[in-house]
Amino acid sequence: MQQSLESLVSLLESYRGRDKVIRTVCYGSQLVGGLLSRGTEAEASSRLGKSLLLFSAQLSHCRTVLRLFDDLSMLAYSHSYGLGAEEEDVGVRWISVLTNIADQLYYPCEHIAWAADAKLLKAKSGKWWVFSMVLWGTSLLLGILRSVRVLQLLKKKLKRCEQDRADGSRAQLRRQMRQELLSILSSMADLSNAIHWMPPGFLWAERFPSWLVGLMGTISSLIGLIQMKTSSSSQSDSA
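^ that's the sequence the OP posted. Answer follows.
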């Protein structure tokens, strides 16, 4: 119990960890709230569901405001990655470069949309929210393609390790493959929501009920927490 509490406190002390927790609570509240507000038989349950949906909306707004300060960190990462000269595979390199461009452009588009909604700018926020959703969806799709390519490369390495009977390398490669599979699942869940938030008429845009949006987001958020925990454990083991 004490160890779990310490892990949670440590997670909340970092910006990325706190954002992942807020994201999980946000989508979890939307999932439960959406399910409770569906039925009209129990008034108390319906009222609780609506309150959870309002709480989820406030947490989402909180994350949007916090992302106002993410541009520089994203720019620093994009600059350090550059054209991906250290990548072994050309496909992975250029997919990563395009992903960084989409992510970098996403932030100012979202900032303008937020500022327009807050009446800080005299602009219509609708088109800027669409731009940000398109960029987010593009980034997610590119991320899926990158993970698929990395999986292909890892499978080839795994076959070579099996021929050489390198047990330690095989175990590490399998862990990397599991991480990439989780990344694909997470990105697909987020991509389904990104399409839902597109303008009506595009695939299943605006057709998801609140609970389904919450479910997809919760799946993605829990995977993110698992990956963060796995990453920190691997760093502790290698230290």
